[in-house]
Write the structure tokens for this entry.
Amino acid sequence: MAQESGFSIQFNENDQVVTLAGVLRPESALAGAEVVRGLREAAAVVRGRLYINLKRLEQMSYLGHRVFTSAVRAVLDAHPDIEVILVTSSVVPWANRRFAPIAARWPRLRVEQYDQAFYPGQRVIESDGLLPVLRAQTSVIWRHEREMLSRHGLKPGAAVADICCGIGDFAMLLWRNFAPSRIVAVDHYRPFLDYARSVAGEFGAEDIEYQYGDAASLFLADETFDFVTSRLALQIFDKPAQIISELKRICRPGGRVYVTNEMMGHIYAYPKEEPVTWAYRLIPQMAASLGMDVNFGPKARAYLEDAGLVDIRVDLLEVNNVNSDLRDFAAVAAGWRDYVVDEVAIATGQPPEVVERLRSALEDFLYVVENRRGFAAWPIYVASGQKPQ
Ligand SMILES: C[S@@+](CC[C@H](N)C(=O)[O-])C[C@H]1O[C@@H](n2cnc3c(N)ncnc32)[C@H](O)[C@@H]1O
């Protein structure tokens, strides 16, 4: 996470948040005046709670710490009606260690580690149960996606970032097939990154930079990458626009942001349409109760446009049992069955009869995938946009 340089402090009055980012290493207490002034000015206008966002604060020197804590103390003393909340994340563990003991002593100061439970579906997504599903999915998708990537602007030698990289197999495929000049892959689940690093080690791909991080607050500098990808991931966030704005931030002008997402409601199987359609109507509802939109796919174009990206290109990547490796597709279908029944249905508190019906419907889907006399299709919506020059 040593990508940031410099230091910045910004105040968003609407959200009552002061955001500190970069490296706070003032050469003298005077140089910390920016921090003191920033906090004082913010405190003068906020009502109730002042949030100080430390999620992208890479480092803080001893002197920086002193300047910062005394500025916070001054705010608390001058404004007895204000509560100050330091917002940290597991990506900056040092901040929790440093500030939690202070907050325990000072009234009206709290530390909140925002990504402890930062989206309702976190325990379902950041789960070892997803690993075989991700592995099978990338195998079956790659054959189609490889061609598509060139159409969406990926060129050999590009600097690439894969955000929400999962188990890292896509980064590995890019590394092998597109020889990127640099490739950084970020995820928020450490066991996936451990897996990714061990695979990369086996293939001698040590130059893939796997990084623990948060897609909403990346430790990557502005305008660094030619091609920024986030695959099958916007659909798990309840604020996808926030993630797209981070993807755009780290993309170079002229570079492209590339996203893929599902529309589970469009998954289809013949015969067995009835149970399969029932299941793939219910799954988006269960996912919605966890804050996810697994029907996000067709909305991607609008989101990319709204983020100010241009030259939007969209594609439909359809995995079906005519155009894909049947064993791989069957592994995906079996993975979904187990993951939905064992994890998603349980996490969303489905009654036993619904769990049983789901299991049977997902068995039916697997049956159709494996049976060439039927037809099963899984559409994935691909979209990319260019960051204006
Ligand atoms: C559905 S998986 C997709 C993984 C991968 N892109 C793929 O296509 O196989 C979503 C991934 O997002 C990761 N994730 C969830 N929240 C995240 C966050 N805030 N920052 C970075 N990664 C996150 C999860 O750990 C998971 O690996």
Q: What stands out?
A: The chain has two domains: 7-116, 122-382. The pocket of S-adenosylmethionine is lined by residues 125-126, 134, 137-138, 164-166, 170, 186-189, 192, 214-216, 231-233, 236 (CB under 6 Å). Residues 7-116 form a domain with the Transcription Regulator spoIIAA fold (CATH 3.30.750.24). The longest strand covers residues 49-60.
